[in-house]
Design a protein that fits this description.
alpha/beta; Glutaredoxin; 9 strands
């Protein structure tokens, strides 16, 4: 469910992090209720994807495409982390229902979404409300932002991110 707020309020989210800057660190509960810190992922590529809501059509399509590419992401040393406003119990149900092999994180107070510039005023058929804008941040093994996708279409996005990761790694590896 979306949170109704006064649409006259200014947009509280800063812009998304810039390429080359340190990714804002955070600690969020994962789909099992355990605390998960972004800084614990140093040494790995991290695909941090923000999505509006568990078990909705677009979010399910995106999650299942990341699921279907999981082996390829592991092959390039990347971890996928999905972030939405839903609680850990909702994440656990969503993960189990679609057999998602990656971690889902619960950003119930929207603090991480705000820090990453994805908590936005949305408009759906004239109804204004605050929610997470579908977006992705690729974090390199040193914890720096390597790429930002500020507005994402769910279908095909997992392949797009994987393709870029492969390009980056091919350019960084000796031939």
């Amino acid at each position: 469910m979306t949170q109704q707020l006064d649409p006259a309020q200014p947009d509280p989210a800063p812009p998304m992090p810039e390429v080359g800057t340190l990714a804002p660190d955070f600690t969020l509960p994962d789909d099992g209720g355990a605390a998960h810190r972004l800084s614990d992922e140093r040494g790995h590529w991290v695909v941090l994807y923000f999505y509006p809501e568990d078990d909705t059509a677009g979010c399910t399509k995106e999650a299942c495409q990341f699921r279907d590419s999981d082996a390829a992401y592991r092959q390039v040393g990347a971890k996928v982390l999905g972030v939405s406003k839903d609680d850990a119990a909702s994440k656990a149900r969503f993960k189990a229902k679609y057999d998602l092999p990656f971690t889902l994180l619960a950003d119930e107070d929207h603090a991480v979404s705000k820090a990453y510039g994805t908590w936005r005023l949305k408009d759906n058929y004239g109804r204004k409300y605050w929610g997470i804008q579908r977006a992705t941040v690729l974090v390199d093994p040193e914890g720096r932002v390597a790429k930002v996708w500020p507005r994402v279409k769910a279908d095909g996005h997992a392949d797009e991110v994987l393709g870029l990761l492969r390009e980056i790694q091919a350019g960084a590896s000796p031939s």
